[in-house]
Specification:
single chain, mainly alpha, 2 domains, about 5% strand
Length: about 270
């Protein structure tokens, strides 16, 4: 089965899952494991399986990990979607899929039309562990960013006494914020591990001493943003609009630090 055929299958499955999630936004929210969401659960699992096979063909090569811009985006989106599925099984988070799943489709289509670059990451198991932790950190914080958008929409509707259909069937605002902070803490801890491993184990992981670059500076800036907000939440009870602004700000720095840097290096500088 070729990558093109696999991509088409995954896009169709994600499209079905997207429609089911969007339909659920105008109906009372229930657990993803409920009877009402059985078809959605099947579509999500099928999407992740076929997407995983596609990533195996594209990213995991005989010589190392092909982490070119498009394939890295696809890998991160797969991890984000897998985390979304896991979180939705235990917490009321089905709504996040209304943004995540269409982004999966857009990413897969972009990858098809991107130049076929090859960026092979070889190295020890320590380097692969570092990459895995980094991808998990970015994925959790991306989920936090999406959740922050829903919290923002819900809070604005409450303040303006607007009963939008989409907000009527979301979980209570306190529940939504609780999930946001749980995801943020998980992502912040993993991002901390990513930076620490990159600083102290750079030579063992990458084969060279630690060097300051745009990626490191922007990632460290994101860590400061997330850390400042989480401290403010713990110390002064920051929430609401503060949560939204700080979360989106930190996530923007992360995206610029990794994908922005990769885009410039691969497509503008040809490295």
């Amino acid at each position: 089965m070729t990558s093109t055929v696999l991509t088409a299958i995954v896009v169709i499955l994600y499209s079905l899952a997207s429609l089911l999630v969007i339909r659920s936004l105008v109906r009372p929210t229930t657990s993803l494991v409920s009877t009402k969401h059985r078809l959605l659960l099947l579509a999500l699992i099928s999407s992740l399986i076929f997407h995983g096979v596609l990533i195996k063909l594209q990213v995991f090569t005989a010589t190392g990990l092909n982490l070119s811009f498009g394939y890295a985006m696809s890998l991160v989106m797969w991890v984000i979607t897998a985390l979304y599925l896991l979180i939705s099984l235990i917490r009321p988070a089905t709504n996040i899929g209304a943004i995540i799943l269409p982004l999966d489709i857009i990413t897969l289509i972009i990858v098809v039309f991107l130049p076929s670059n090859t960026v092979i990451a070889t190295g020890s198991s320590l380097m692969h562990l570092h990459i895995a932790i980094a991808v998990l950190a970015y994925s959790l914080l991306a989920l936090a960013g999406v959740q922050a958008l829903f919290v923002n929409s819900q809070e604005k509707a409450l303040h303006k006494n607007q009963s939008r259909q989409i907000n009527l069937h979301l979980p209570p605002l306190e529940t939504m914020e609780s999930l946001l902070f749980s995801i943020l803490w998980g992502g912040f801890i993993l991002l901390s591990l990513t930076l620490v491993s990159g600083i102290f184990f750079s030579e063992q992981i990458f084969g060279k001493a630690f060097a300051i670059n745009h990626h490191i500076l922007l990632s460290a800036g994101a860590w400061v943003v997330f850390g400042t907000f989480l401290f403010g939440h713990w110390r002064w009870g920051w929430r609401g609009q503060n949560a939204v602004h700080w979360t989106i700000g930190g996530l923007s720095l992360l995206v610029l630090g990794y994908f922005g840097t990769k885009f410039v290096l691969e497509f503008m500088l040809g490295r």
